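Propose amino acids for all 129 sites.
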């Protein structure tokens, strides 16, 4: 992934959105979505590589370790998706909705992390005994 290309696409997209916002607001939204999709496509190979790395780590960890890696991967995914969605809400003036999306993501992450915390506490308890 070349971050310079991503930044250039983002800046170009922002310029198009700013220009279209006054002329045709409905097209400005579409331009923002297309720009976001283009950036996601540009980083897709990097994301795939990260998933492959996590898959290799989880397979090496075996049973319980594998489920922890899968849960961590889901948590990271939820974090990125909620941040991206909240950003879109903020871009279009719906800051309160964006904050609710972030809250929902945090609650979801916390709920998914509880089994990991329980596992850590059980492991520490076993070591201390």
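Proposal:
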């Amino acid at each position: 992934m070349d971050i310079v290309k991503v930044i250039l696409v983002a800046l170009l997209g922002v310029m198009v959105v700013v220009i279209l916002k006054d002329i045709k607001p409905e097209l400005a939204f579409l331009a923002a979505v297309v720009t976001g999709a283009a950036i996601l496509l540009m980083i897709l190979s990097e994301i795939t590589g990260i998933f492959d790395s996590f898959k290799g780590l989880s397979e090496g960890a075996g049973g319980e370790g594998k489920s922890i890696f899968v849960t961590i991967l889901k948590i990271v995914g939820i974090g990125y998706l909620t941040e991206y969605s909240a950003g879109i809400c903020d871009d279009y003036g719906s800051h309160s909705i964006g904050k609710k999306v972030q809250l929902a993501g945090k609650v979801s992450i916390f709920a998914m992390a509880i089994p990991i915390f329980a596992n850590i506490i059980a492991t520490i308890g076993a070591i201390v005994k």
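The first helix runs from residue 3 to 23. The chain has a mean pLDDT of 87.
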